[in-house]
Each structure stands twice: as C-alpha cells, then as structure tokens.
Amino acid sequence: MELLDETDLKLLKILHENSSYTTKELAQMVNLSPSPVFERVKKLEKNGYIKKYIAILDAEKLNQGFAVFTNIKLKQHDRSIGHKFVEDIMNIEEVIECYNISGDYDFLLKVIVRDMKHYQDFVFNKLGSVKSIGSTHSMFVMSEIKNSYGAGVPLN
Amino acid sequence: MELLDETDLKLLKILHENSSYTTKELAQMVNLSPSPVFERVKKLEKNGYIKKYIAILDAEKLNQGFAVFTNIKLKQHDRSIGHKFVEDIMNIEEVIECYNISGDYDFLLKVIVRDMKHYQDFVFNKLGSVKSIGSTHSMFVMSEIKNSYGAGVPLN
DNA sequence: ACCTCAAACAGAATATAATTCTATGGAACT
DNA sequence: AGTTCCATAGAATTATATTCTGTTTGAGGT
User: Fold this and answer.
1) Which member of A31, A54, B34, B67 lies 3.0 to 4.6 Å from B23 by CB, making a disulfide possible if both were Cys?
2) B75 with B135, same domain?
3) Which residues form the HTH asnC-type domain (chains A, B) (predicted)?
4) CATH assignment at residue B27
C-alpha cells in the first residue's frame, strides 16, 4: 500500500477510539460519501493497518479490578530458559500483557486479578510454578489515570 | 443486572477477542438462535459490561513501534501537584496509558513513539515541560510477548 | 401435583446498514 | 487537447441487525 493520506489517518483515529459508527456516520465525519469510506476502511483492514475489532470490557464489573505490574528477572539467560518462560506465561490467563524489557529486570507483566488475595494466590501458585523465574517485584495499580488501549495515530 | 450466566461470559470472552462476528455466528458459537444472543449482547452493552468497541491498529505500520514504560516520581505529594500532573499527562498523546502505582515511583506510563530518537525528544520536550515531575526511569520494550488488550474474562 | 407467571427462546418479519455496481469528474501524463 | 487512471457520488442489491409473535421452560405459590 502506498501512503496513508489525511483521511485514512482520520479514519484510523476515529475507529481506534470507537468502532461502532456506521459507514454513513464515518462518511459525514470525514466529508465523503459512504462508498469511498467503505473502500478505504476495507483497504486499511486488508493491508493490516487495522488488525481487528474488539470489545472493551469493564474489569471492575467482572470482578477483575485489581491490576499489578510485575517485574521479572530470570534465573539465567539461556535461549531455552527464555523460551520456556514465554511459553509458560502465554498459558497464564491472569497475565494480560508481557514485555521483554531493558534494565534491571528482564520482563514486565501486566496482571489482572480480583483482589490482593487473588494476587497473592497468583504469585504463589501460578508464578511459583514457573521455574525459570529468579526474582519478582510488584507495582500495584492504585488507579488507572489514562488508557487508550493501544497505538495512537500520529497526526503528523 | 442480576448475574451473568455461562453464556454471557462466553459471549464476553469471544467479543473481547474479536467483535467482528455477526449475530448469527455468535449464535452458533453459544448454541442459541440469533435473537436471544442479540438481546444478551445489547443487555451487556446497556449494563456496562461492554464499554465500547474499538479497532486495534498495527503500531509498527504506523511508525509507532517503539514502546517504553516510564516510571515517574513527583517532586512533592500535594493534592494540587498530583492533580496538575494528571492534567498534563492527559494532553500528551504519546502517553498511551498512565497508572498511579505503589512503590518507589508514583506513576507508571506507557509511551509509544516512532523510535529512540523520538523518545528522547518526548522526554526532553514533553515530559520536560511537566513541572511536577521529580525524576524518571525508563524501561524500554524490546519485544511484546503477549497482549490481550484489557480485562480477561474469568471462566470460574 | 397443578396452576400461574415471568423469563428465555426459536423462527418469521421488517428495518437498517453493509456491500456492490455503474457512471461521472478531475488530475496527471503524453 | 486527448487519454488514462483513480477516487468519488449515487443507485441498486444483498446481508445483517433489529423487532415482533407465539411457544416453551422453569420457579414459586396454592
């Protein structure tokens, strides 16, 4: 795909914040008729600029209101140890996000559980059984100030 | 709203991972006909279990592939200083997420920019102009291992 | 055990939006 | 100026969302 123009970026920005608009509504927002807007959105999907559409749930209402960022240091830094760690992490549903990071620790996890009691349980039973882990450090989320759920769109 | 049953949770889980299914498809997945599924989803939206629907974009393709977690310590801990900090952060588009956390630092930011050069620019110009900030510490994301974009659904 | 009521359901009917198609207009190029 | 290409508007069509109706199921009460 060539380059995205102003309208494409505007559409991405809108859809990233709320994808429930009808094509007609989108058309009005970018001052076009529905058909070119439809084609543009399909092209953005086809070319991977839009990966997928998802529903954002209310964690509190689902009794999943307790978020923790957990730093992880591995015991050793073999390729196989790292690979095993990743594999284990993928299967733990409380781990919502996982990043390989620079610095004092090797990984940063975002964990979501019901409450502190469940976090304790998570650390002992779930992380406790991941043998590649050397040490951990927890940062508890006291409140979520801002969340735009992913990449922003540069308006250049 | 009373309590969510098995089917509601299943619908939430499906929609959280991919909200592009038609009502008919959802119906097949949960072994019901389209109308009750439609009503259930509408109820989940109306009662706030589903907050909204969004498009997930490809940060790499949008030249926004460089993620950093930035720890922030405030100069002081007045209510007014904290409030001002939050206000400033809300207006910085590179800051995708912001949490008030426990521990050595006061806040954790997730920042997304084009590359290291732009991060440097972000730190000097954007964070640099937020006067309430005392010190910062950056954890660079070398790779994203896992991301499920928000709350998981407990399958209890 | 029977009755009553309310809720959830399947299936049909309708409304609305998505998607496709066709023809037009303008910009770039020759 | 003529030609080609591409994005567009608007109409036509198709698919889906949404509403409606009648039926079934299950809980609570007698």
Assistant:
1) B34
2) yes
3) 4-67
4) 1.10.10.10
